[in-house]
Design goal:
This protein folds into two domains: 3-265, 2-methylcitrate dehydratase PrpD (Orthogonal Bundle); 275-417, 2-methylcitrate dehydratase PrpD (60s Ribosomal Protein L30, Chain: A, 2-Layer Sandwich). The protein contains 21 helices and six strands. It has helices at residues 3-13, 21-41, 47-57, 74-86, 102-116, 120-144, 155-172, 176-189, 195-199, 207-223, 239-244, 251-255, 278-290, 322-327, 330-340, 350-355, 357-365, 411-414, 422-436, 441-450, 460-463; strands spanning 63-64, 71-72, 298-304, 367-369, 393-399, 404-409. Strand 5 (393-399) and strand 6 form a beta hairpin.
Length: 472
């Protein structure tokens, strides 16, 4: 059995009663989080242009756009909905595999579920299994990727699409053989790299959408009998060899039983910025709050645990897309936290970032230093977390009266799956709804309540109906 066939069997034949209720609970929470991000990002830079282009192209009215309600061909609806979810880089992260995952799998399932007239619980099953496939592959990739060029590929785009294929195949009733073909067809379209992050462009927020779109193309073509390479994951020209210069993992390694489902290890983000910025950003927030630090007390600021010139540690410049520049600048994130405190979405628009010269000036003045001797010993990494996730990152503030204030955080603690409760996700949802300017408190309550039906057999089409008319 090839790896594509084994993962296809996992996706298509796993019985419902083999999926833990804790996985269903996690899937519902992460779907709520993804939809919160869509509310916040529905009119972010680049999103309106994407959905207008999709509407101009027209086509079969198979699936609905979130917020606007227009009906489009399924791949185009998934692409557009993904752009909304990922636009603010506020969507989740799967730390073991370094993936943004619901921004790929959830849009694919919204489209496929509508086409298949699936129930909410069926949709959650598909999300769970899609995340499982993508997570297992991404962890395997991390374990085998040793060549420097491997890190220029974007795991979300390269491996997220296989999860979306698995999820869509389950909802659309594909056989194991058809699902394996779809995975091969997906591999033929797979791409995605980090250059958009280096150049601070809007393309970054579209790359999960390309993966979701390609996955639905692959599933539809496989359903019509188009064959795909079964060796996509372990054949002569397999994805690990081509993209990462490494031999593929053993089937037994990828398919080994796990103590929990990968959906249960997906983490909610608390800030609309790259996950690589989060540990120093959290440290800066703590320092400001715990020390009651006032902006006028700051003399100079240092960041440790990041190297100068990395993709989030370049010199801060506004550029053509200030929001993207701020999201991917650890200097800007730390400067904002020290001067403004807890993040407010309205401060992270292009217009607000251009206007806040004080934060920009401090960001440009921040320096990088070596990890100081007085940080704690590294933590023991959780299972399947990379060792780097337990290394401390943080900030040092030198005050005008001569004090040295330091706080440290590490990715394993910031992104621990249980670090954010379901109640906090609901609070994040309300924050995003308020920022969207689309719904009042009562309407927001209704949107949250309707998602409770995802755990039932109520048709997904009915459950999601309120989401398709928010601008009307």
């Amino acid at each position: 059995m090839t790896l594509t066939e084994a993962l296809s069997q996992l996706a298509v034949e796993t019985p419902t009663d083999a999926i833990a209720e804790s996985a269903f609970a996690a899937a519902r929470t992460m779907t709520l989080d993804a939809l919160a991000c869509a509310l916040a990002g529905w009119d972010a830079p680049g999103v309106a242009e994407v959905v207008e282009q999709m509407r101009d192209w027209g086509g079969a009215e198979e699936a609905s756009l979130l917020v606007r309600g227009w009906r489009l061909p399924a791949p185009n609806a998934a692409f557009s909905n993904s752009a909304m979810i990922h636009a603010l880089d506020y969507d989740d992260v799967h730390i073991p595999g370094s993936l943004h995952i619901t921004s790929v799998v959830v849009p694919a399932i919204l489209a496929a579920g509508e086409m298949a007239d699936a129930g909410g619980r069926q949709a959650l099953e598909a999300i769970i299994l899609g995340v499982e496939v993508a997570g297992r592959l991404a962890i395997a990739r991390r374990n085998v990727a040793t060549h420097a060029h491997a890190w220029h590929w974007l795991p979300t785009s390269v491996f997220g699409g296989f999860g979306a294929v698995a999820a869509a195949a389950r909802l659309l009733g594909l056989s194991i053989e058809q699902c394996a073909n779809a995975m091969g067809l997906n591999y033929a379209q797979t791409s995605g790299n980090r250059q958009a992050l280096h150049d601070r462009t809007l393309t970054k927020r579209l790359q999960p959408g390309f993966a979701a779109r390609s996955a639905l193309w692959a599933a539809a073509l496989a359903a019509r009998g188009i064959t795909g390479p079964r060796g996509a994951l372990d054949g002569e020209g397999n994805i690990f060899r081509v993209y990462h210069g490494a031999e593929p993992p053993a089937l037994e390694e990828v398919m080994a039983e796990r103590p929990q489902w990968e959906i249960e290890r997906v983490s909610v983000k608390r800030h609309t910025s790259c996950g690589s910025c989060h540990p120093p950003l959290h440290a800066a927030e703590r320092l400001r709050e715990e020390e009651a630090l006032s902006p006028h007390e700051i003399d100079r600021v240092e960041i440790f645990g990041h190297r100068e010139g990395g993709f989030v540690s370049k010199p801060f410049e506004l550029g053509d897309d200030p929001q993207v520049s701020a999201q991917f600048s650890v200097r800007y994130c730390v400067a904002y936290a020290l001067l403004r405190g807890r993040q407010r979405l309205e401060d992270w628009t292009d217009e607000a970032i251009r206007a806040d010269e004080e934060v920009a000036d401090l960001a440009r003045a921040i320096e990088f230093v070596d990890v100081p001797d007085d940080v704690p010993e590294p933590l023991t990494p959780p299972a399947d977390f990379s060792p780097y996730t337990t290394k401390w990152q943080g900030v040092i503030v030198h005050t005008t009266d001569g004090r040295r204030l330091m706080r440290a955080e590490c990715p394993a603690r910031v992104f621990a799956p249980a670090a954010v409760s379901e109640a906090e996700v609901v609070a994040k949802f309300r924050q995003c709804a308020q920022f969207s300017r689309l719904c009042d408190d009562d309407a927001t309550d209704g949107l949250v309540a309707c998602l409770a039906a995802l755990t039932t057999d109520r048709p997904l089409r009915e459950t999601m109906r309120p989401w398709w008319s928010l601008t009307r």
